[in-house]
Amino acid sequence: xxxxxxxxxxxxxxxxxxxxxxxxxxxxxxxxxxxxxxxxxxxxxxxxxxxxxxxxxxxxxxxxxxxxxxxxxxxxxxxxxxxxxxxxxxxxxxxxxxxxxxxxxxxxxxxxxxxxxxxxxxxxxxxxxxxxxxxxxxxxxxxxxxxxxxxxxxx
Length: 155
Prior knowledge:
This protein is an alpha/beta fold.
């Protein structure tokens, strides 16, 4: 018998995804891909650039997707931690890396975040998204919170 592809958890048809990457082409591609899957997407090179977009939202993002290495030595781990702190919520998150340095990979793996290696295929991203979202407790669901985030826009 032919081998079957592994089952992929169903991906919610809608939600708010935040994408952080310092490569404008990757940002545009991720935004188009996720929007094509029915997601609303806010994408930027860093958390500060996201602030105005997120302030306009009336809820917590459903998913964070960040490149591991951002510009000026910034880390996707720090970006995810900052957004989780801003919303006081353990928002599901995925880290994407093209890094092959053992120390950097160990740091990324130690974070507990789902880790994808570039280049990322659509099916891999869908599976990671479904898995990340499934980690959230069922009681939390994808419902917006009662309050908006407290996002400091002053550098």
